[in-house]
Specification:
about 90 residues; mainly alpha; about 0% strand
Length: about 90
């Protein structure tokens, strides 16, 4: 354990931020799974409704620094491609 007061604070702040980042990443994965489940079920109406929500969640994660912007762009392109393939 750290002895210096500022180091102790950094440990606490880092732990809290790590938990917040985990929650955001978990919610993002859940949103992607919902979209993919709708695509796999062949429910185009539901998938079309979920795509903007999923893209928004990806953009939000990029804004918070959880994932890299290129990673998000790659995921968005792949999801849009899956939706387009349903037609």
């Amino acid at each position: 354990m750290p002895i210096i007061k500022s180091a102790k604070k950094r440990v606490l702040v880092t732990k809290k931020k790590n938990e917040e980042n985990k929650m955001i990443k978990s919610a993002l994965k859940t949103q992607i799974k919902k979209f993919l489940a709708a695509v796999n079920a062949g429910n185009k109406e539901e998938a079309t409704k979920l795509l903007p929500e999923t893209v928004s969640a990806l953009d939000s994660a990029v804004g918070k620094g959880i994932i890299h912007k290129n990673n998000a762009a790659n995921k968005k392109a792949a999801l849009a491609k899956k939706l387009a393939a349903m037609a």
